[in-house]
Amino acid sequence: WLAGVLGFIVLPSALGISLGISEAYMWVLVKTLEWATIRLQKGVKKPQPQMPQTPTANGIIERDETPMEKEIARLHRADFEFSHIFYFCRKGFEAIVEDEVTQRFSSEELLSWNLLTRTNVNFHYISLRLTVVWVIGVIVRYCFLLPLRFTLAAIGITSMIVGTTVVGQLPNGSVKNYLSEVVHLTCSRILVRALSGTIHYHNKENRPQKGGICVANHTSPIDAIILTNDGCYAMVGQVHGGLMGVIQRATVKACPHVWFERSEIKDRHLVTKRLREHVADKSKLPILIFPEGTCINNTSVMMFKKGSFEIGGTIYPVAIKYDPQFGDAFWNSSKYNIVSYLLRIMTSWAIVCNVWYLPPMVRKEDEDAVQFANRVRSAIARQGGLTELPWDGGLKRAKVKDTFKEEQQKNYSKMLVRNGSIG
Questions:
Q1: Cβ–Cβ < 8 Å for 110, 324
Q2: How does it sit in the membrane (predicted)?
């Protein structure tokens, strides 16, 4: 009976490996993208405006990075002139046209064409050769890769539901835990191959251990699959309906995932209590948490919610950075539903990313939960080459709180008083 279960698991795994992305495919893809980029640069007859070469090349305006405090001090070294107000007008226009928060919730712009979107600005004719290559790419992605990936995804999801349901019937013990890990790892690897995933894991000696908490930056719903491709985790999240609900109910039978009802997720004390009980059991899998609470566009790391850092235990930070040249992994949930999003990534060339396991971190005696969360966030941002922002990702759907506005007004008035503008 057990042999039959393992056979059901191993067969899809072999299929996923045999049909997965190969080194030759990635080599051809890289060379094709390089050729297309060179042709794009040489074939354009009219000079095109160059995008600013900055770490956040997603912007549409070029900002003066001088801190406001220094600029105010410089302005008030001399007598007041009417032209001084233009500095504040410019800052206001910059904030209205493009603030540093909302641009993190739109897809990252590229400096070169990746044969997915026609250009990084708008559609326009470039050359016959590039157009032919683009049309061939559309045929390959939609007529060959999409059906193949859809088949693998169906195999992976079905294997996950059936495998975890069968393993969940076994009595608790080492055999059940082992088979549960085999099912989760195998099905996750099939799903990664359904995305033509090419993942590079670094510093594997720092992989999260049982009884710990794994925290990572959040770009896409597939972040969890990317990580479970290399190890097993206990997931934390809200109970869903539909296909996702079926998967949740099946997986929790074989693995101690922590699913909350909608009414429970709002009770922070109840959530903390259940997570502490999980971490206290050193035989249970590490918890996987995305403290940002929403998807950010692969350029930045925003504020980490402190709840994950009040639980106690060892924190294992993980930095995830996708290569946007091959496909856009960011999920803009305000613009695309989950079906449209999955169609976009399954018709991309590939999902290529780097995953760095950082050394484990523990909370210091003189740190509160917020300070600890900021320290972990800074480590992830540095390793992933991401911009660190202090803003709450909840601003993606909510308005700025009045307290934030008042804090900025107070800081501004202090600058003016300090520099002798008000007396």
A1: yes
A2: Multi-pass membrane protein
As a whole number of angstroms, the distance between CA 368 and CA 391 comes to 18
Beta bridge partners of 322: 353
What is the DSSP-derived secondary structure letter of residue 196? T
In contact, 235 and 160? CB cutoff 8 Å = no
Token pair for 232: 């097993």
The structure tokens 């640069």 sit at: 41
Reduce the DSSP state of residue 406 to 3 states and report it.
helix
pTM of structure: 0.77
DSSP characters for 310-371? SS-S-EEEEEEEE-TTT------TTT--HHHHHHHHHTSS-EEEEEEEPPPB---TT--HHH
Helix, strand or coil, per DSSP, at residue 260:
strand
Cα 131 to Cα 115: distance, rounded to the nearest angstrom: 9
CA–CA dist 191, 156 (Å, integer): 6
Give the CA count within 13 Å in the CB-facing half-sphere of 227.
Answer: 29
Polymer length of the chain: 423
Burial class (CB in 10 A: 0-12, 13-18, 19+), 364: exposed
Tokens found for residue 125 = 């004719």
In the 8-state DSSP scheme, what is residue 351? E
**Strand 197-202 relative to strand 300-301: parallel, antiparallel, unpaired?**
unpaired
CB 355 within 8 A of CB 319: yes
Q: Are 227 and 290 spatial neighbours (Cβ–Cβ below 8 Å)?
A: no
Specify the residue for token string 């056979």: 7
The conformation of residue 111, written as its DSSP 8-state character, comes to S
CA Rg value for the chain: 25
* CA–CA dist 211, 284 (Å, integer): 6
Q: pLDDT averaged over consecutive 10-residue blocks of the chain (423 residues)?
A: 41 44 63 69 49 44 60 60 67 68 72 65 65 85 91 91 89 87 90 89 92 91 91 83 80 82 70 83 88 86 86 90 87 81 88 94 88 93 89 70 73 65 45
Bridge-partner residues for 317, per DSSP? 215
